[in-house]
Amino acid sequence: MAQDPTPPLTPERAAALEAIPFEAAPSPAYVVHMGRLEDNCRLLQAISEQSGARILLALKGFACHSTFPRIRPFLAGTTSSGLHEGLLAHEYFGKEVHVYSAAYKPHELVQLNRFAHSLVFNSYKQLNRGIEILGDNRKAELGLRVNPEYSEVETELYDPCSPSSRLGTTREALDKALRELGDAALHQLDGLHFHALCEQDSDALEHTAEAFETKFGDLIPGRKWLNFGGGHHITRPGYDIERLIRVVRHFREKYQVEVNLEPGEAVALHTGVLIVTVLDIVEAGGKQIAITDSSATCHMPDVLEMPYRPAILGADLPGVHPHTYRIGGMSCLAGDVVGDYSFPEPLKTGQRLVFLDMSHYTMVKNTTFNGVPLPAICQFDPAQGLQVIRKFAYSDYSMRLS
Ligand SMILES: Cc1ncc(COP(=O)(O)O)c(C=O)c1O
Predict the structure, then answer these.
(1) How many domains would you assign to the chain?
(2) Which CATH number covers residue 379?
(3) Residues 221, 333: one domain?
């Protein structure tokens, strides 16, 4: 299992998160630090101003809508993966609503068209069908997601650019579809979209954008916008912002187009924690294992999918401190293990543990497998203190099952 791949918090970021009153929160609970969230969005706004890029929050990564009034002023809008995220964007965020989906049902397109600024299609065939379905009622701009067939993403599960990926059309597939369906839809196309990054710096963007330009550059003139997707780790300390600005400006100036960026993780990076409680400590195979009221598979699924080992406040790699424990979850999944950690003092039942960097891809992905209760959602603001936004109950579990 990979060890702590996410960059360590800077001392300022760590100090901000440590100010959260962990003992006062329910357990388990996600707590979003509003000041940290605003700091990230302020940086994104500055980059938007310097580069001219429109920056959109990708709701798939972070959709905690109670926070939207605080971050809305800094961003141009949101990007959604389909009807439900689109509706949430329209209802709670406002501003520009952009949508890309691997496929749309006709009624979804009709509903999205009422408020979406752009609808991005996954293939030329779907673009044609979308134009037909929306007919003269079309209000949204139209985009096509392309596959530049270049990516530096190492984890296969997160690589949308392999030649046989279903996400986005390759140049070969597009040319074939153009021969079969004609080029009329191309004349109605407002923008091109690619998404090929995952937690990457702007050098990976630069290389991917070059591959995109080589493969699809002849299709850019005449478009209104390009969308460079997400995966830009912009708010990570040390990210090369100047290079990002250069890449965006290159396309804006050469082709006279708008450029959209749609980060999810970068909006919420290092902005929140997951507070859990140790319920029991068991021993097996010579290891001390702490079972918590949380779960990797239910509450932090990326830990198992990526996989990675999230940092715990005050803990370190096994063996660094005198007391090493495996931290496990409540579910029946044998692999429901977050990782091995060492602590300066022995763990006790009833003690709280604080997982760092738990705002993005957690609340949006969690499940109630085994009926494990969902963590509460809280906000912390140094001026307003801790606010419990939502607690979940048995009914949240049962209502989804019949
Ligand atoms: C099309 C698209 N846009 C944006 C994003 C957001 O990516 P990230 O949260 O890594 O910035 C994703 C993530 O999978 C995506 O698939």
Answers:
(1) 2
(2) 2.40.37.10
(3) no
**What single letter denotes the amino acid at residue 137?**
N
Distance 229 CA to ligand 1 centre (A): 6
Mark which of 250, 268, 286 sits at the end of a domain.
Answer: 268
Residue nearest to atom 15 of ligand 1 (CA): 230
Task: Find out whether 142 and 131 touch, Cβ atoms under 8 Å.
Answer: yes
Shortest-distance Cα residue to atom 10 of ligand 1: 231
The boundaries of the domain holding residue 380 are 11-31+271-398
Ligand 1 mean position, distance from CA 62 (Å)? 10
In a domain, 244, yes or no: yes
Long-range own/partner contacts, residues 133-139 (CB < 8 A, 24 or more apart): 133/106, 133/109, 134/109, 134/110, 137/110, 137/113, 138/113, 139/113, 139/114
The CA-to-CA distance between both ends of the chain, in Å, stands at: 37
The per-residue pLDDT string of the chain (402 residues; one tens digit each, 9 = 90 and over) reads 334 445 678 999 999 999 999 999 999 999 999 999 999 999 999 999 999 999 999 999 999 999 999 999 999 999 999 999 999 999 999 999 999 999 999 999 999 999 999 999 999 999 999 999 999 999 999 999 999 999 898 888 888 998 789 999 999 999 999 999 999 999 999 999 999 999 999 999 999 999 999 999 999 999 999 999 999 999 999 999 999 999 999 999 999 999 999 999 999 999 999 999 999 999 999 999 999 999 999 999 999 999 999 999 999 999 999 999 999 999 999 999 999 999 999 999 999 999 999 999 999 999 999 999 999 999 999 999 999 999 999 999 999 999
